[in-house]
Amino acid sequence: MVGSLGSVVNGVGVASLVDTRNNIYSPVRGWYADVSFMEYGELLGSEFGFTNFLFDIRHYRSLSPNTVLAGQFYLNLNLGEVPFKQAATLGGSSLLRGYYNGRYRDNNAVIMQAELRQHLFGRIGGVVFAGVGDVAHKPSEFEVGDLKPTGGAGLRYLISRKEHLNVRFDAAVGNHTHGFYVNISEAF
Length: 188
Fold this sequence. Notes:
Structural class: mainly beta
Radius of gyration: 18 Å
Strand order of the largest sheet: 1-2-3-4-7-8-9-10-11
Largest sheet: 9 strands, antiparallel
Mean pLDDT: 95
Order of helices and strands: EEEEEEEEEEE
Strand content: over 45%
Shape: globular
């Protein structure tokens, strides 16, 4: 892949962020939408010319006083000569847990995931989650049959009642792979 030995990229763009979540660490209602457009080119000092479109849309809905359903749609599109480090990836502790970050890498990525969060007792909560996603060289090459599934479960420990901040312990599985994650705050 071009730029795998290093690259210089400079760009300019526009971003729009809408955030109506009631809490940034562990929301129970609201929307989060991050939409951006970036143009990278030689006139800006970049070694590669490409355009990036990013859509990160999340919704949180309280199903009961102790249950939250969270969903995310993530689309990363790159058109042009995309260097290795700017390629779209899936996996890691936030986008399709169960695959290690960068296991799948190409110009474009699409990911959909959902999580059911449940307060259990005291400071303890639990979650179950599932998702699908894929990477492709061109947007027209995405195919439903190629989507990589993932799913898992986890526990939450509330470390700050004031901020509603959790430590999360997640176990996830994907196709022929798995992952264990310990992080502060929710995956999305």
